[in-house]
Amino acid sequence: MTPGRYRYTRRGGGSASRSAVFAGIVFAFAVVACTRNPPEVTFYKDVLPVLQKNCQECHRPGEVAPTSFLSYEEVRPQAKAMKEAVLGRRMPPWFADPAVGRFTNDRSLSRAETEIIANWVDSGTHAGELKDAPAPRQFADGWLAGQPDVVFEMPADYEVPASGMMRYVYGIIPTNFREDRWVQMAEARPGNRTVVHHILVYVRDPTSTWLREYPMGRVFMVRDHGKNSPIDEVLTGFVPGAQPLVLRPGQARLIKAGSDLVFEIHYTANGKSASDRSRVGIVFAKEPPRQRVVMLNVANYKFVIPPGAPAHRVDEAITLYGEAELVSLHAHMHLRGKSMEIRAVYPSGEVEKLLWVPNYDFNWQLWYHLPPGKALPRGTRIEVIGTFDNSSRNKNNPDPTVAVRSGEQSWDEMMMGFIEVAIDVGMNPTDLLRSSSSFHAGGQS
């Protein structure tokens, strides 16, 4: 039936037609009325469960969000701003295109959850009955991943000056492990978020020569930090918006007996002198794992972004020479980062887009975790395509008049696609790649 062309043909149908039109008008007014008068929802019964599930991990004292969402008294003044943020899909932060891939840690609110918040605001932000509230969500004090089995911290406070360019700062801490330990969860925590740009915590192999000329037990800044070798793996890290390392049962990272932890911290001066002592918490696997999880870095260090370029493309790729299971993906660029795509080219020639971040945000650098079982056959090529906006239309651009190259500082750029893969526990990670440059290199984040 063609819309708008139906008519009554029965004799005397004028009355029926008028009745139908009247009924349609009444229905339309009813729809409008319902839209203008959304059903009343209350904070304790309807809104608080949504906040507990999706928001409180960050919106609580001591965490990254500037406001706490634990109580009605804290949430009520933020109600209108919260509604605008969820309707505009700015919160919770999630930047993967929903049409590409499926991720187990998707932070996006469902349509029903978004409507609950919007209707609560529109109907008057009523508290409701306290008896309807769910039990408070429990968090380990100071940790997102739960109470650690062991905590390692930088060997001393580091004094960050009020201004000036900051090179990477390092601290080396012995684990004193007398046997190999498998790690299920790990979380890097800044001591002072206002000055910490990023943290990387490496596991330095007992046979590695990386940074051996520097002593244990002190914090130091070096002009040439060199590169870690493929046997020095990343344990975990911190960047804005990042979540702790939480691996599935049966998967773990390895810390060999006699290994050291190397903290690499990039501080950013903010106009006020500050002090920091960052730390990392570790939760050990309770059972021997079936798979070992390692991090690979698909990075290009040799690009030049022309002045004013609105969409400059930079590519890089690696090939896997062993079988692996894809665990998670991460896009890393700086202030001129515009978008990133990570895709797999399989030995059959099939191309699959794994992750598409169309609107990259330097302030929220998220990991995207895949469901179990995503196989990467031997010979799979992982391709990363980054696009940069060096034009004046980019409000975050430090200077659109200069050519931009790879570098450590935020006004420089980086093009890195990180992937975490799970391999058989008996496999040497270096056998996965023929080029050691594909493993994450120290001082390049």
Overall description:
This protein is of the alpha+beta class and 445 residues long. The chain has five helices and 23 strands. Strands 1, 4, 8, 9, 12, 13, 16, 19, 20 and 23 form a ten-stranded mixed beta sheet that branches. The longest helix has 24 residues. The N terminus and C terminus are likely disordered.
Number of helical regions: 5
Q: Mean pLDDT, rounded to whole units?
A: 87
Which series of helices and strands comes N to C?
Answer: HHHHHEEEEEEEEEEEEEEEEEEEEEEE
Mind describing the biggest β-sheet? Answer: 10 strands, mixed
Strand content: 25-35%
Low-confidence stretches: 1-35, 435-445
Radius of gyration: 26 Å
Helix content: 10-25%
- Apparent shape: globular
Number of strands: 23
Structural class: alpha+beta
The N- and C-terminal alpha carbons lie at a distance of: 60 Å
Strand and helix layout:
Layout: H1 13-36, H2 43-54, H3 72-75, H4 79-87, H5 111-122, E1 150-153, E2 158-160, E3 169-174, E4 181-189, E5 196-204, E6 219-221, E7 233-238, E8 245-246, E9 251-255, E10 260-267, E11 274-276, E12 279-284, E13 291-300, E14 304-305, E15 312-319, E16 324-332, E17 337-345, E18 351-357, E19 367-369, E20 375-376, E21 381-388, E22 404-405, E23 415-424
Helix pairs in contact: 2-5, 4-5
